[in-house]
Write the structure tokens for this entry.
Amino acid sequence: MSCMERVLVIGATGNVGRQVVSQLASTGADVRAMTRKPDAAGFPPQIEVMRGDLSFPDTLDRCLHGTDTVFLVWSAPAAAVVPALARIVQHARRIVLLSAPLKTPHPLFQQPNPHRVMVEKIEQLIETSGLEWTFLRPGMLAANALGWWAPQIRVGDVVRWPYVDVPTAPIHERDIAAVAVRALCQSGHAGAEYVLTGPQSLTHAEQVSTIGCAIGRSLRIEEISPGEWRREWLPIWPEALLDMLLNAWAAAAGHAAFVTSAVAEITGAPAHTFFDWATDHAGEFRA
Ligand SMILES: NC(=O)c1ccc[n+]([C@@H]2O[C@H](COP(=O)([O-])OP(=O)(O)OC[C@H]3O[C@@H](n4cnc5c(N)ncnc54)[C@H](OP(=O)(O)O)[C@@H]3O)[C@@H](O)[C@H]2O)c1
């Protein structure tokens, strides 16, 4: 696929954004990567890297200047939403937003939380902006396993976790990016909301053992209570994030994961399995 768009990727150094930058670059698109720390971004020299911060709207004008299409990963506080979106709307013609399955009637995705309220606000501002928009709604990112389990797996064979039997359908960031690139570069995606998942429903225990297969080790998951998990992770993650996850997993217990075929339908290639993802990231789980 070739692409003539001039694209600003916001969130370019993250799990999904980095893949979007790399896949866009291979289409011939004119790609600009925004980050708060250009010196640490680590992109190849052909990628234009620019300093910008969603919390400081004045920094966005220079990043947006000369681009007409934006890939937006929102990772800033809620207070920054209105001013940042106003700048984006002034400059861009088309936007692809990394959102979440806010409208999917599965308990994993339907628990109230402040993050959800913020994302709904972002969507509402985009929908009423006059921009051509596409919303990508991935379920659980496979890349969550890096923050959740890699530190434990690097030092031993046991992962301590709650809700070990709760299934999700983790999606490879490469597949989200492959859909994003089509929505950024091709016509026919305006107004579309794509619910994107991995191809399989896998419990947390099955995901941990799949990582073990990918790295050639026999890993074991040890169930701990939600309260114990919350106490252990409280010094590491924000309380709101811990509660968001615990509520989602509690609600999803006993339900099969929600699985869609959207990746294959949009890209023409099957979605990557969790084993594919773990193999791609094997080095990050090894000591
Ligand atoms: N985790 C899941 O299962 C899941 C599921 C559905 C949707 N999502 C959505 O996915 C998104 C996270 O995607 P990801 O995993 O690819 O991200 P990530 O790896 O967490 O990276 C976050 C990115 O945001 C950038 N960033 C942070 N604060 C910023 C700011 N103030 N201004 C500009 N850029 C900022 C960071 O860039 P620098 O540090 O380089 O500036 C980095 O590129 C979130 O919006 C989340 O709601 C996640």
Q: What stands out?
A: Residues 10-17, 35-37, 53-55, 73-76, 98, 100, 138, 140-141, 143-144 surround NAP (CB under 6 Å). Residues 230 and 281 are 26 Å apart (CA to CA). The chain is about 40% helix and 15% strand. The chain has a mean pLDDT of 97.
